[in-house]
Amino acid sequence: MLKYLNYFSVSVIRIFLMPMYFLSGFTPRDEKLWVFGSWGGHRYSDNSAAFFEFCNRELDDEFTLVWISRRASIVKQLRSQGYRAHLNWSPAGVWYALRANLHLFDCFSKDINFWTSRGATKVCLWSGVPLKVFERSINVPGLRYYYLFHGNFITRMFLSMLMPWHVVRPDLIIAASEKSKEIIALGFDVPLSKIYTTGLPRNDQLLLPSNPHEKNLPPKVIAAIEAGQRTFMYLPTLRDKYTGQFDLDWDSLNELMAEKNCQLFLKLHPVDQSNLNVNLSHISVVERSAEIYDLLPHIDALIIDYSSIIWDYMLLDRPMIYFLPDHEEFISTGRAMNFDIHEHAVGAVCNNEAELTKAIAQVIEDDFPAIMQRPEYRQVCTKLNTYVDSNSAQRTLNMLDAEGLYKPAAPAQEALDCG
Question: 101 with 230, same domain?
Fold first, then answer.
């Protein structure tokens, strides 16, 4: 009953906001005002944050760049670093979003403020290589996104009113590779000509020299780095029901880590509500809020399952272990996969704890080999990462230039000497 009351209240609110969305299409837009957002306005992360910082470094003062957030803590943090930032429903936040010519976001225009976005050019910086099907490609009845795009007329209209940002197509999207580009085109139903293979701006920092003290890394991670310990990180992706991947003998695994002078860090998906509390001498949980792309350059080996972060970490040429204890259940009850994990795996695939422990020990014993020399590793990496460099943000800016959306200031002419 509570669920239906919530649907009703949201529907009523939408009725009042729809006129605002319509009228936002008539506000004059400033070509040199850009607004950014991420994760529904709840995080400062991913490609939006990386591109926001790049633009603040590279663009001249003629451009006004503003981060829009739902979190006062994020606004405060960014302002302390000298950036412009406003809450999405503050007078200034609404004003900037209504006037901005470009809305740049990770997934959907609600990352900024959907109700102010009609008339703006919507640039989707997308969150990664689509390992799982998404949006219009979802073909599993029972998921609300399936009914949003494939349900009957009344269902589609109702869900479109609740989640309108899913049905309004972006104007431009970036992709990590030509293969990703094809998948994204189907999911968003946009022409290939509006998807640019730029690489992902968030990955630029993976390939640059990184000092752990330059970022706000968790103290235990910094301590492990300074102690010269090898670091593992386990990054389980979000699951709807299954939590058995955490039913491990943590004490035995901690003994292995201690014996080999390694540290294992666990980081849950930002919206995963699992109650996992492991705090041992050589195993600990990292805060969900910790920025993963700050962490990855300092991780020597990754334990992963169904997350597209697989393809990002490949850029570092480091060992990966695939832990898939619920593979059959995950495939049968969730969204279909665009890629077969087993066909694209470049490390040990483990189905249970015994195999996981063996794989970890093997990685340690092999002294963290440079697996970039393995032909299958290079083949998979380049299939899903067209560029292996730190210039993705620049290529994203070049995309805006090619589309006539970025007009750099003309170089100042030298004054003539008239004697």
Answer: no
